[in-house]
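Late entry, evening session. Most of the bench is empty. Finally got around to the prediction I had been postponing all week. Sequence below, unchanged from the version circulated by S.P.
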Amino acid sequence: MISWRFYPVVLALQAMRGVPFVTAVEMVSEVGDLSRFEHPRQLMAWLGVTPSEHSSGGKRRQGSITKTGNSYARRLLVEAAWSYRHPARVSPEIQGRLEGLPKAIIDRAWDA
């Protein structure tokens, strides 16, 4: 068993499609401790994937993503998201990554 304190997070990230071991380790090394973000919106803002806003008076206009924050982590997230354009299925590779993970983590990964 690996004793790295972020190893359980790496295992949980691998439950999602498009996130192999290397991508999960890179994401954890870039983001660090996820508990420092009180809400998922804060993490998304840190990654720069929140929409920009140009509002005036009663009009609210949202534009493209802000692209502020950590560009490398944002690139990893976008690359992983590309796998969601294909229909969901459990390949042998993904099945191996899901073994031993709690059901709650697997369910959350499939909700994504």
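Two things to note before I forget:
Helices lie at 7-13, 21-31, 40-47, 71-81, 92-98, 103-111.
The longest helix spans residues 21-31.
Will write this up properly tomorrow.
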